[in-house]
Amino acid sequence: MKNIYINSQGGLGFNFALSHIIKELRESYDKVCILSPYFDVFEANPYVDYVYKPHEIRDFIFDAKFYDAKLICERMYDTEDFIYKKVSYADAWRKAAGLKLKGNKDGSDTRAKLDLSKYPELLKKADDIFGIIKKQYKNFVIMQFEGGQSPLIEVPFNDKGKKDWTKVMTNYDNEPLKRHYPYEKAKKFIKLFQAEHPDTAVLLYQLPNEHHYEGALQFELPYLTYYELAKNENCIGTVSIDSSLQHMVAGVTKSVVIWGHSLPLSFGYSYNKNIIQQCNRDDILYFSALGPSGARIDYIEPDVLLKEVNDYLF
């Protein structure tokens, strides 16, 4: 056995997906060391031995060399099997690390396991938010309809010296894969959901520059707060697109996931309710250098989505 050093080059969901298989890595390696911009995800993982921040790349490389460790620096997105849609996130990592593949064609079977005890202020935030929710509602569902941005983004300041998210509004035309659920449809779905479930709060998982919805709760919180909220017994589940929320709460609570250009085989979880919307995916490969695809998506109608959510979550 030897050590393994991984430079995790990807977004928040990508890093959560790697976090899910760390326990497997520990069964084959003496130590697992990770470099990531989302270092808190791995600091909260009980099976990670050491975490490097991006500015510590030199130490990361030289430590790996010193220990003669297995070193992974390539992006899983750019591997042949992932581009050709042959493997899931989890199996892409397993293959790179020399582990046995699971080959689940409905998506990964991995589950999130984080320990947030070292972040007491985050646990308090989760308690505070739940305190706000239970004043008016019996339970809650976490929802995400937009994604593709990093919460680590540098936000411009307005003329009063305050961070101004309105200057960095989301732009889906630049995304290689269309994953969002359109605003007007999401707006109608939330309205229908609220009418049918008046005692259930809609808690949005999103950044401040994304759309607001009447009657839904939105807070500016550290992303790991939502992991703790999803564990709450009063959380009915999540409704989301293929973005970081589904990876964060994988196996923690029930999840309904709406799929656009991407598919569960590569990015999803077999135990979720995966709604695959109609789309011509012939020209869609998971390789960002090809640029965005123009393939049209036949989005699920809000009333149909509500029935799916009712059947699975309630």
Rg from Cα: 20 Å
Number of helices: 12
Fraction of residues in β-strands:
5-15%
Distance between the termini: 46 Å
SS-based class: alpha/beta
Describe the biggest sheet? 6 strands, parallel
Q: Could you tell me the mean pLDDT?
A: 91
Which keywords apply here?
314 residues, single chain, 6-stranded parallel β-sheet, alpha/beta, 32% helix, 12 strands, 4-stranded parallel β-sheet
Briefly characterize the structure.
This protein is of the alpha/beta class and 314 residues long. It has helices spanning 12-20, 22-28, 39-43, 57-66, 80-83, 89-97, 120-134, 183-196, 224-231, 244-248, 264-267, 302-313; strands at 4-7, 32-35, 50-52, 70-72, 139-144, 200-204, 217-218, 235-241, 255-259, 273-276, 278-279, 297-298.
Textual characterization of the structure:
The protein has 314 residues and is of the alpha/beta class. The chain has helices spanning 12-20, 22-28, 39-43, 57-66, 80-83, 89-97, 120-134, 183-196, 224-231, 244-248, 264-267, 302-313, and strands spanning 4-7, 32-35, 50-52, 70-72, 139-144, 200-204, 217-218, 235-241, 255-259, 273-276, 278-279, 297-298. The strands form three sheets. A six-stranded parallel β-sheet has the order 7-6-5-8-9-10, with helices on both faces. It has a four-stranded parallel β-sheet with strand order 3-2-1-4, sandwiched between helices. A two-stranded antiparallel sheet has the order 11-12.
